[in-house]
Amino acid sequence: MFSISKITTLLITLLYIIALLSVVVTAHLSGYENFLKTMTQENGFFETISVVLLFSIFIYGIVAMIKNSQLFSTLILLSILAFSLLAFLAGMEEISWGQHLFHFQSGDYFLEQNLQKETNLHNLVDANLFSSVIYSTIYTLFVFIPLLYKIFAKHLEQITLLKYFDINPHTILVVLFASVFQMYFYNDIGVLVDMLTHITALLLFGYFLWSNVNNFWLTVHYIVIIVSTVISMLHYSVYDFFNMQYEIREMFVVLAALLIFIELVTKEKTKM
């Protein structure tokens, strides 16, 4: 099985701690009531890390294509290129195609139609709709399909395409950590669905862990996600700024995407 390096493990641990501390400090330390808002604002800590990770995916993909151009099939190379370009476009969207760096004025169309008056496309779509579509896709591809494949591997192993979803379970937990940061108990159907989806995924992962795996560190990682969920639930009121939790969630999803990308490329190389 593809393993996560010690450096990557330390990075994930550090980001977990920073994210949780951002919530706890905001909730309990006098004078730091706006700390989470500062960390999650435009060009703040979490968005900056997201951008760095997105461009890391792009660079890794281009380098992997060049190094393995004689080994990989045309289809694999095109797949790597497509994912790399998607990450590049997402990164450029996050910095509003340079507007955050060079502070140029948005055109009239973006001033009228863009939710944040910025030069990007994703803020032309209703935020709730955009978020729902993105997270539904992420949960399907990064959590539910991989977990169901692992649980029912004996019955599904003949379906070749599904083997690409046999990703490291630690990476699945990174995605679940992203979903820890929710408003919880807020009177909104979208929030309720997010919460139920997260809890369902945790239960499904727990079943997988109980029935298939005897791995101490994976169990520890799973318990960390459970404890983090409880901490976030207890402090859900700190998410008073609408976009707070989304910047944190986005960063961990992009981190998981990078890990999955590296894993898939590495597995493809070992087949050669």
Outline of the structure:
71% of the residues lie in helices and 0% in strands. The chain has 272 residues and is mainly alpha-helical.
Q: Care to describe what's here?
A:
The chain has 272 residues and is mainly α. Helix content is 71%, strand content 0%. It contains twelve helices and no strands. It has helices at residues 6-28, 35-40, 45-67, 74-94, 99-102, 108-113, 127-151, 153-156, 169-178, 189-212, 216-234, 244-271. α10 (189-212) runs antiparallel to α11 (216-234). It starts with 5 loop residues before the first helix and ends with a helix.
Q: Portion of residues in helices?
A: over 70%
Give the topology string: H per helix, E per strand: HHHHHHHHHHHH
Strand content: under 5%
State the major sheet: none
Distance between the termini: 17 Å
Low-confidence stretches: none
Shape: globular
Rounded to the nearest angstrom, the radius of gyration is: 19 Å
Oligomer: single chain
The SS-based structural class is: mainly alpha
Arithmetic mean pLDDT: 87
Number of H/I helices? 12
Number of strands: 0
What's the layout of helices and strands?
Layout: H1 6-28, H2 35-40, H3 45-67, H4 74-94, H5 99-102, H6 108-113, H7 127-151, H8 153-156, H9 169-178, H10 189-212, H11 216-234, H12 244-271
Helix pairs in contact: 3-4, 3-12, 7-9, 7-10, 9-11, 9-12, 10-11
